[in-house]
Design goal:
This protein is an alpha+beta fold. The chain is 31% helix and 19% strand. It has helices spanning 3-18, 22-30, 37-49, 53-66, 71-83, 87-101, 120-133, 137-149, 156-167, 187-191, 334-342, 369-380, 405-410; strands at 106-108, 117-119, 243-247, 266-272, 277-282, 285-290, 294-300, 303-306, 348-354, 359-364, 387-390, 416-423, 437-440, 459-465, 470-475, 478-483, 487-489. The strands form 4 sheets. A 6-stranded antiparallel β-sheet has the order 6-5-4-3-7-8, with no helix packed on it. Strands 16-15-14-13-17 form a 5-stranded antiparallel β-sheet, with no helix packed on it. It has a 4-stranded mixed β-sheet with strand order 10-9-12-11. The model is unreliable at 232-239, 325-345 and 426-433 (pLDDT under 50).
């Protein structure tokens, strides 16, 4: 299913929700092939509204797998577990939702198409409720006290009532998400779905022929007083950059330097690479399109004409060519050759690891669990016995030497595998030398998992220099990268 078809069905389902026809909206959402994380979230909300808790859990699982940073999806799955009385899993999801908030008071999802604000105090409120059901009253009181730190004026009464209930060891009501509030598609994309007639219909305004009383669709013939003095000069077509081609198949881009085109578009090929990718220009925009999706046109005074083909094009688009590393157009440069040498071998795989900071290691596909943890332990500079790997962010998906590694490697896509890592002990990273210790001049809040947060005056041990603007360091037990302009070197007499 193309992006336009998905967008059209998404918009139809939202229209049904606006009419309060939730059954038809759910039917349309379920008919979408390969839904994105937002559509999976919408399906889970509608299933939760219908009390189909098992189906809602599966939908939120799919949403989280497609976007592991969607805090509201963890919050909704926690609500689902609460209704299923699976309180331990409920607490775990609320903890993940709070982690995805990254210390912020709230997240406003309006920019993403969801008219909802997720508050940290509400997440802590529901976490305390699940702990109360488990009889963990002290933990519940601590989380409610922490919720008061994130409170807003509108949420004070709810948290205070919950605190009074825990003191009496009584449960309280959960803060629930309005399930009829769903992610909506981008309104600018939806507006482009409607066909527009920019030219309008032709009509006769006035006749240049005196006393013309003709009524109909025949064109008017203007009169001339004298014959032209010489033959009319032939018109000259404006020279266009590139060779004209017509698009045969729909092409959806996967990277920012590729260009979206549909059958019938006229593009001008600027350069064709040896890897079957062509640099084209279309409507003033330049990008990359597979050359086997195009057909050459001949330009003449009579217009554009297709070059004769020996075989008609099939309806199934050809195989998408592989992108080369480095330059895509033209001949390979010395940088291309260096990048090719740095690429992994055919049987190797890139393993992306989520830890306190993110990193990647390369090893042969099909390696044993022992080889994998030794490689990661060496990367972290700790013993492999202290490394625990998980297939997902869920703590219950921990791996061990008994794990079926064949099934793990069978899930590799495009030679990439994603794992989560936790360690029993954090071995401090040694600085480059004993003299390089930095002091924070300003506070820095991390915007990515690999960033390092700190406050003014914090001491940071320098690990490495990424480039002129970014450094890698360790502070308060955390490791990550940070802007070099935010810190200064501690004077030697202080050290």
């Amino acid at each position: 299913m193309s992006f336009l078809d998905t967008l059209r069905q998404w918009d139809d389902a939202i229209a049904c929700v606006d009419r309060n026809d939730l059954t038809e909206a759910l039917r349309i959402f379920l008919a979408i092939h390969q839904p994105n994380s937002k559509i999976c979230f919408n399906i889970g909300c509608l299933q939760l509204l219908n009390q189909n808790l098992d189906a809602a859990e599966k939908a939120f699982d799919s949403s989280i797998c497609k976007d592991e940073h969607l805090a509201v999806a963890f919050f909704q799955r926690g609500i689902t577990f609460y209704k299923m009385e699976r309180y331990e899993e409920c607490v775990g999801d609320f903890q993940l939702a709070l982690k995805a908030l990254r210390g912020n008071q709230l997240i406003d999802y309006k920019v993403l198409g969801l008219r909802y604000k997720l508050y940290a105090c509400e997440v802590l409120h529901n976490m305390a409720l699940a702990e109360a059901h488990l009889g963990q009253w002290e933990k519940a009181q601590k989380n409610l006290a922490k919720a008061l730190e994130y409170k807003t004026d509108a949420k004070v009464n709810i948290i205070n009532r919950a605190m009074q209930s825990t003191l009496k060891q009584k449960v309280f009501k959960a803060v629930e998400f309005p399930s009829s509030v769903l992610f909506r598609p981008n309104k600018h994309y939806v507006a482009e779905l409607e066909k527009k007639d920019y030219l309008g219909k032709a009509k006769v305004v006035a006749s240049v022929v005196p006393q013309d009383q003709f009524s109909g669709f025949a064109p008017l013939q203007p009169q001339v007083e004298q014959e032209p003095s010489g033959p009319k000069e032939p018109e000259v077509l404006r020279a266009l950059e590139g060779d004209p081609h017509v698009v045969l198949y729909e092409f959806l881009p996967e990277t920012s330097d590729e260009l979206a085109v549909v059958p019938g578009n006229i593009v001008f090929v600027l350069q064709k690479g040896s890897d079957n990718w062509a640099s084209v220009i279309f409507n003033g925009r330049k990008g990359l399109v597979p050359y086997n999706y195009l057909e050459r046109l001949e330009m003449s005074l009579g217009g554009l004409q297709k070059v004769e083909r020996s075989e008609p094009p099939s309806r199934i688009p050809p195989t998408r060519p592989e992108r080369k590393q480095g330059l895509v157009r033209g001949e390979s440069s010395s940088e291309d050759l260096q990048q090719k040498e740095s690429q992994p071998a055919d049987n190797s795989c890139i393993v992306k690891v989520y830890h306190t900071f993110n990193f990647a290691v390369s090893l042969a596909s099909g390696s044993t669990y022992k080889t994998l943890v030794e490689k990661i332990g060496k990367k972290l500079n700790i013993s492999s016995l202290s490394v625990t790997l998980r297939l997902t962010s869920d703590a219950t998906s921990a791996m061990s030497e008994d794990t079926d590694m064949e099934s793990v490697w069978s899930g590799v896509q495009s030679k990439h595998l994603t794992l989560w890592c936790s360690t029993k002990e954090q071995t401090s990273v040694k600085p480059l030398n004993n003299d390089i210790v930095l002091v924070a001049l300003h506070s820095y809040e991390s915007t990515n998992p690999e960033d390092l947060s700190f406050n003014p005056g914090d001491e940071i041990t320098l690990i490495s220099k990424i480039n002129q603007d970014w450094l890698e360091g360790q502070s308060n037990g955390n490791t990550g990268i940070f802007p070099a302009s935010f810190v200064e070197k501690r004077p030697a007499n202080d050290q």
